[in-house]
């Protein structure tokens, strides 16, 4: 059974043994007014729906459909806003992107997850992975631990390289549990993000993307 909880502004659903599509961005790369407006339009309705359920104990028939629609709308606005932001782009520095890529790959070697796909954008990252767990609570813990390791290690090294102090990554991440029929679409979304942002003409021209060889073979990429 899925366990739903709120962390900061976003609803997080953490079942066991699933694929996660996670997006996280540089600290300060999205203006606070933009985040507030996205939250007002899409996440406040989700919180209201949960409050109504707790009060009545009854979810309307279209509850799941509404939740999915609101999360997709939020993510579309969130990603578009990141593409539009042109000033804070530390990941444009190949040295910083290499640090982040090395951390992503090292966490797979340490068996924190099975890595399916990722792309490192100038101010944010999309990554798709799985780490099996015995329970929903266990998987929630593993997801938090994975993101703490990924963000923490890369932040320390990147800040050191750039000669700066303070937050490197935004605390919040957008994590989405991948349903069976979404996997292929999300892989294509991740790989084509640099194309969508106008950085390259074809996904395989982007240096900072990766897809697992077996998945690439299955999808004939």
Structure description:
The structure is a single chain. This protein has 221 residues and is α+β, with helices and mostly antiparallel strands. It is built from 6 helices and 7 strands. It has helices spanning 32-56, 63-84, 94-109, 136-162, 183-196, 213-218, and strands at residues 4-7, 10-13, 19-26, 114-120, 124-130, 169-177, 209-211. A hairpin with a 3-residue loop joins strand 4 (114-120) and strand 5 (124-130). It is globular and about 55 Å long. The two termini are 34 Å apart.
Topology:
Blueprint: E1 4-7, E2 10-13, E3 19-26, H1 32-56, H2 63-84, H3 94-109, E4 114-120, E5 124-130, H4 136-162, E6 169-177, H5 183-196, E7 209-211, H6 213-218
Antiparallel strand pairs: 1-2, 3-5, 3-6, 4-5, 4-7
Describe the structure using short key phrases.
221 residues, alpha+beta, Alpha-Beta Plaits, five-stranded antiparallel beta sheet, two-stranded antiparallel ribbon, 6 helices, 50% helix, globular, disordered N terminus
């Amino acid at each position: 059974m899925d366990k739903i909880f709120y962390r900061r502004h976003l609803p997080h659903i953490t079942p066991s043994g699933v694929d996660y599509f996670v997006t996280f961005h540089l600290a300060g790369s999205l203006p606070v007014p933009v985040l507030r407006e996205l939250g007002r339009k899409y996440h406040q309705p989700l919180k209201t729906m949960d409050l109504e359920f707790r009060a009545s104990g009854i979810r309307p028939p279209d509850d799941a459909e509404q939740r999915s629609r609101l999360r997709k709308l939020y993510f579309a606005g969130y990603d578009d806003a990141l593409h539009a932001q042109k000033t804070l782009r530390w990941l444009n520095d190949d040295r910083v992107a290499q640090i982040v890529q090395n951390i992503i790959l090292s966490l797979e070697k340490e068996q924190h997850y099975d890595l399916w796909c990722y792309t490192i954008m100038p101010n944010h990252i999309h990554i798709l992975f799985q780490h099996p767990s015995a329970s929903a609570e266990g998987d929630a813990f593993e997801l938090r631990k994975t993101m703490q390791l990924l963000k923490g290690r890369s932040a320390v090294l990147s800040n050191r390289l750039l000669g700066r102090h303070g937050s490197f990554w935004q605390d919040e991440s957008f994590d989405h549990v991948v349903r069976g029929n979404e996997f292929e679409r999300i892989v294509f979304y991740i790989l084509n993000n640099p194309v969508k942002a106008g950085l390259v003409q074809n996904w395989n021209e982007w240096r900072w993307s990766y897809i697992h060889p077996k998945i690439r073979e299955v999808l004939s990429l």
